[in-house]
Design goal:
- Two copies of one chain form a homodimer.
- By secondary structure, chain A is α/β, with parallel strands linked by helices.
- Helix content of chain A is 45%, strand content 14%.
- In chain A, strand 4, helix 3 and strand 5 form a beta-alpha-beta unit.
Chain lengths: 275, 275
């Protein structure tokens, strides 16, 4: 009983610095993720963005106070977490340039391993799995956050910080995050390229792409409700070689034809049919 | 003046049979499109589904009256339009088997030319450009309808009928519809296959696919708001060969690797970069 009580007390004390006071955050970087994070934290009462660093001294938000912006890493203040929302290539370098040790630093990348960060620090990852545009308002509440931390106490803190933005919190290792990132390339980058091809085909024949928009949305919504394998339809899975041939004739662009053939073959091979 | 008045009167008389009374529809077929159309018309006061034909005598809706179902084409009643919501392969055959001439008949296919229908009839196409599932409620109001008709007066009628379901009405030729259909294969069938691959990759590493759902939805929503070319991001367009190599190592399935390489190459070639 006594031991249990001591453990509870220790646990309480360990978490106390984080939970009793405002969480102090410093954001490094000036890209979309940095800006959207600043805006989200800015509106939150229990988080204070103490300072932002970027090379050009750019404001992340019109309301950001001038004295919270710095272009000099040597003037960085004290914070509970330093969020390196910089490009993948810059993560290692920026972490090496930090003029202090043993602070909790995280990056926001989907593909960079946690241990790319300088080991002088307590390291972590704070990866919002979403595509960000400059002009779009981001609703963080619906965005999954993939978290990683070297130390359990930092993970507890990171979950607390994340919970101010979103309920979708996942502990994800660097290896799993890499897998998620390649999956994200399929559902975002490659999917968007298919939309871009459809847009090109429609333009070639003076057909408004808007006719396809409801189909684009329904296709995505379906995949969030059912296993995509069960939603597969079309000439490939029907083995409808007549339609496939007619489609290939419409596509005069050889790259479009190659993509059509590769994906048709893949669908047929997955569902047990052959060209 | 007199001529104008006569023309107006003639125009009025021509349209009168359609607009003054209930529109009488007969649906042939028992698939998803037939069922969803029946349900939509069933709830609409100005349209009466006089009869439905399918080989098995299947009800299209639990509330459908038994005496409005037939398995025998020879018992087909009089209607303003006969909608052949049958599979692509059956359209020609069913149109040949109709035991009357010179009626207005339409099919609902994206890829079959209008003139596949038997020329004894006044022909048309009534193609709802959407993916239909058996269990999902369909909101026709947001679905684009691609219409085609041999005769102007049938087109006027078809637009009137369609307007009871949707405001998104497009006059689309058989050739344009074919182009839309191949575009639909890209944004629906192929996109869904990319979702299916991402699902497989996640399953292989015991990562819940649900983490990717918000990204799936946002990717689609973005494409409905901006030109997909402007939304393109990722390692391919960044020419990030380090990440591309790492991704290809994660993909152990050769088909997945081939799709990754083909789409990466296509993105790089479209946006002026080379592997």
């Amino acid at each position: 009983m006594v031991l249990t009580e001591v453990l509870i007390l220790l646990h309480f004390l360990k978490e106390l610095p984080y939970f009793s006071a405002m969480i102090r955050v410093i954001i490094l970087g000036a890209g979309n993720v940095a800006q959207h994070l600043f805006t989200a934290f800015y509106e939150h009462k229990s988080v204070e963005v103490v300072q932002c660093y970027n090379r050009k001294g750019k404001r992340l938000h019109p309301n950001q106070k001038e004295n919270t912006i710095t272009q000099d890493l040597n003037t960085l203040k004290e914070a509970d977490v330093y969020i390196l929302a910089v490009s993948d290539d810059a993560i290692e370098e920026v972490s090496n340039l930090l003029p202090f040790n043993n602070k909790f630093i995280v990056h926001t990348s989907g593909s960079v391993p946690m241990n790319t960060l300088n080991s002088n620090h307590r390291r972590g990852v704070f990866y919002p799995l979403q595509t960000f545009s400059e002009d779009t308002v981001v609703d963080f509440a619906s965005i999954p956050f993939c978290l990683e931390a070297e130390y359990e106490e930092n993970m507890i803190f990171l979950k607390k910080l994340t919970s101010t933005l979103s309920k979708k919190i996942y502990e994800v290792s660097s290896e799993q995050r890499n897998v998620l990132h390649v999956s994200a390339v399929f559902v975002n980058n490659f999917t968007n390229h298919l939309f871009s091809i459809a847009n090109d085909i429609c333009n070639n024949y003076n057909i408004p792409f808007e006719i396809l928009r409801p189909l684009v949305l329904e296709t995505a919504q379906k995949a969030t409700k059912m296993n995509p394998d069960l939603a597969q339809t079309g000439p490939a899975i029907r083995n409808d070689s007549k339609t496939i041939k007619r489609h290939l004739k419409i596509l005069t662009d050889t790259t479009q034809q190659e993509i059509y053939k590769t994906l048709t073959k893949a669908i047929q091979s997955k569902y047990g049919k052959k060209l």
